[in-house]
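[step 3/7] fold_predict: job queued, chain A
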Amino acid sequence: MHIVIMGCGRVGSTLAHILEDKGHSVAIIDQNPEAFRRLRSGFRGRRITGFGFDREVIAEAGIERASAFVAVSSGDNSNIISARVARETFGVDNVVARIYDPRRAEVYQRLGIPTVATVRWTADQILRRLLPEGAEPLWRDPTGAVVLAELDSGGLWVGEKVGALEEHAGTRVAFLSRMGEALVPDRDTVIQDGDIVHIMAGADDLERVNAAVAARNGEES
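[step 4/7] structure written:
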């Protein structure tokens, strides 16, 4: 994947290094060229000086071939404007914006822009959205035996009932995230496009659940 990051602060530089270590190509944008000093000397990605909502700047960063765009500058307005430009002008579906004001975050979630408020923000949360790899634990009980996990169920489950997913994967759906709000479903709740499925399962069952969902997705593909 090619990923464009706006903002080379502690978060942006950390993401850039992690993504590069995972084998992805990265371009990072910052209006302050001094910010690039946070990047390690061996960083191979592109450094672009400018504003992330400037079309020429993000075009120079390779937005037209990007699989994802993440905005983690210090300004809410800059982050959301650049995220919208990436999605609406350049057609990048996978965008994430950091928002300092949680009330704004809810508004932008409803507009279809995934946001993470700084009060609960970590690099791991951003990476979970950029690089979904099956069921990723969000919470564990004190014994470590039970986990709450976000399930990458794939778009092929859209239109299916929650009960069908539970039966196929042998797990329990705890709740759905829909348009920025949490929804506790019943077995007849239909999964909609954009829903994020959260499951409760035994820690030892995650690989089995992943395999079951992957097998179904492979069959439908």
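[step 5/7] annotate
DSSP finds seven helices and eleven strands in the chain.
The mean pLDDT is 83.
exit 0
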